[in-house]
């Protein structure tokens, strides 16, 4: 599976209009401006595969990017943004909730957190919300280039310890879109999930 072959496929505003769940899907979640879209772009080796905005809460759709016929990378709307109408937040809960809890093809979730402010209250609420889903979770500590090497590794060790108590089985790594560091580790996780999902019974059409 070559992530650099990822291409835009479609955007969904209504959970009833998701594409057929015939191939594995790896979804990206992150607090607004945590670096989610940048991480997706970096992993796919593309500058603007996923739109990068400085305006929190800009992405309100589920965006699907096809990696050949092997998998979809899925960009989920950012969470934790302020200053948006309550109906938009309710839409987030419905759209993302339906997808995360009921999508058979979903192989795992990449949760992007700013390495300078990991496991913030909003991140902890998200993980608590996700826990009943039983989904695979891998945390990218993005913008790790903003920390010294020593501080980055202290943060990684601390988050790994805390994550074990908050979301058992979740994994975590350092990541930098600017330096392109951590890409091989993240790609290995994504490819491993996709392979494991393919080995299960075929996904149902949705």
Offer a concise description of the structure:
The protein is an alpha/beta fold and 206 residues long. The chain has helices at residues 36-44, 86-102, 121-130, 149-166, 183-199, and strands at residues 6-12, 25-30, 62-67, 71-75, 106-114, 137-142, 171-174. The chain is 34% helix and 21% strand.
Structural summary, described in words:
There is one protein chain. By secondary structure, the protein is α/β, with parallel strands linked by helices. It has a single domain (3-196), classed as P-loop containing nucleotide triphosphate hydrolases (Rossmann fold). It has helices at 36-44, 86-102, 121-130, 149-166, 183-199; strands at residues 6-12, 25-30, 62-67, 71-75, 106-114, 137-142, 171-174. The chain has a seven-stranded mixed sheet, sandwiched between helices. Strand 3 (62-67) and strand 4 form a beta hairpin. The longest helix is centred in the C-terminal third of the chain and has 18 residues, at 149-166. The radius of gyration is 16 Å and the shape is globular. The two termini are 23 Å apart.
* CATH superfamily membership: P-loop containing nucleotide triphosphate hydrolases
Q: What percentage of residues falls in helices of 4 or more residues? A: 25-40%
Q: What distance separates the N and C termini?
A: 23 Å
Order of helices and strands: EEHEEHEHEHEH
Largest pleated sheet: 7 strands, mixed
Mean pLDDT: 88
**CATH fold node name:** Rossmann fold
Tally of domains: 1
Architecture, according to CATH? 3-Layer(aba) Sandwich
The gyration radius over C-alpha positions equals 16 Å
Ranges where pLDDT stays below 50 over 5 or more residues in a row are 52-58
Structural class: alpha/beta
Count of discrete alpha- or pi-helical segments spanning 4 or more residues: 5
Query: Strand order within the widest sheet?
Result: 1-3-4-2-5-6-7
CATH class: Alpha Beta
DSSP strand (E) fraction? Answer: 15-25%
Q: Based on CA inertia axes, which overall geometry fits?
A: globular
């Amino acid at each position: 599976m070559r992530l650099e072959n990822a291409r835009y496929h479609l955007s969904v505003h209504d959970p009833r209009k998701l594409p057929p769940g015939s191939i594995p899907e790896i979804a990206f979640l992150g607090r607004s401006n945590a670096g989610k879209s940048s991480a997706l772009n970096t992993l796919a080796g593309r500058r603007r595969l996923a739109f990068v905005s400085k305006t929190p809460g800009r992405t309100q759709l589920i965006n699907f990017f096809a990696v050949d016929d092997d998998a979809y990378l899925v960009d989920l709307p950012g969470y934790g943004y302020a200053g948006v109408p309550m109906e938009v937040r309710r839409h987030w809960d419905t759209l993302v909730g339906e997808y995360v809890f009921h999508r058979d093809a979903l192989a795992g979730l990449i949760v992007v957190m700013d390495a300078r402010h990991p496991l913030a209250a909003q991140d902890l609420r998200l993980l608590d919300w996700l826990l009943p889903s039983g989904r695979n979770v891998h945390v990218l500590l993005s913008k790790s280039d903003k920390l010294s090497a020593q501080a980055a590794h202290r943060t990684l060790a601390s988050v790994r310890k805390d994550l074990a108590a908050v979301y058992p089985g979740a994994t975590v790594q350092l990541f930098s879109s600017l330096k392109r560091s951590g890409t091989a580790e993240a790609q290995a996780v994504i490819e491993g999930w996709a392979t494991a999902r393919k080995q299960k019974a075929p996904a149902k059409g949705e």
